[in-house]
């Protein structure tokens, strides 16, 4: 048996607070890094089956990413019974909500698949209800990627935070955490759906909830769902997933935002530092590499990238200048991402705009190495990039995956077609790429 697979199964059976043996346990993998292991493929052909390990049809509509632990892959979906729910890809500025689903009951469902074959191990309907709010046409009612520690699987379904047994699908507990209304704060009647994914750290489930009113971040005990602390955020809506880091032996949670980018003490929820953001409806998760935290957003007046030291404390100031401080190591005012979580790999920071303008910077200094267009200028890019085996993968909304050699010079290696739209960030395990497309999960070996 593969050593990593054995380790994961051992931790899962023991149910202990063991270290992650290197799977893909949450949105964008370990601590949202986006970096996987193994030698991943450069080229494949879904139409002919070349390099395709398996394909599995998944009902409903979901933009959540798959997560992996041991022999299992988990993916979520929202099934309305409607034959083909609206999903509008491309570059456009329509802020209106989808109204055709206002009275349709949805089944929020988790599928557990065999990671090596795609066979369904179990499936579980967690919540059945009419959606609590409307969604954007480039969104779904299952945006939130679940998280797992091998024993438990936690996810957000409609307005319910739920924990399932990862081996059987049995629901261990549920906590109602709504309302979860989010949209452009200048047009509050047009809601876009909730998308922040939960994370697990040291036996605690962390949920960031930046919504129309009473934004907050909170920690719940993974054993029983008990709320351990809740800290008010004072933010307008965002769709960002939190990350974690350790400084001087203390674990902290860092959260993107508009009025407030901030870090919190994991044990107490006390705010450690904060600063004003730039883009006014942020989506990307913070990425931690070494002693730097990289945050970005890009909607409205600014499109900044910030590199903040893990030793940060107190008020770090405003995004658009003012006095610099020792904790803000460097910043770029106009290179930020609106939708994608950036990638840090081998000391390089990779960024990409919605329109496919990608760049590579020195992660320590912000110095630009290259700037290139990935698509044809009309192609949208929403999924976050991932990397493994010296390759970086950018997935366009139309299902075209651009493969670039990691490095200080731009080298386009290949472009592969998944055969249908893809907006979820892929997962990686043992050199296999797992893509969640419009109707299926596809494993590329």
Topology (SSEs and partners):
Layout lengths: L2 H12 L37 E6 L9 E3 L2 E8 L26 E9 L5 E10 L17 E2 L3 E6 L2 E6 L5 E6 L22 E3 L2 E6 L6 E6 L5 E6 L10 E5 L2 E6 L5 E5 L5 E5 L11 E3 L2 E5 L8 E5 L4 E2 L12 E5 L10 E3 L2 E5 L4 E6 L5 E6 L12 E3 L2 E5 L4 E6 L6 E6 L9 E3 L2 E5 L3 E5 L1
Parallel strand pairs: 17-21
Antiparallel strand pairs: 1-33, 2-3, 3-4, 4-5, 6-7, 7-8, 8-9, 10-11, 11-12, 12-13, 14-15, 15-16, 16-17, 18-19, 19-20, 20-22, 23-24, 24-25, 25-26, 27-28, 28-29, 29-30, 31-32, 32-33
What does this structure look like?
With 445 residues, the chain is an all-beta fold. The chain has a single domain, classed as Methylamine Dehydrogenase, Chain H, CATH 2.130.10.10. The chain starts with a helix and ends with a strand. A hairpin with a 2-residue loop joins strand 31 and strand 32. The strands form eight sheets. It has a five-stranded mixed beta sheet with strand order 14-15-16-17-21, with no helix packed on it. Helix content is 3%, strand content 38%. It has one helix and 33 strands. Residues 5-21 have low confidence and may be disordered.
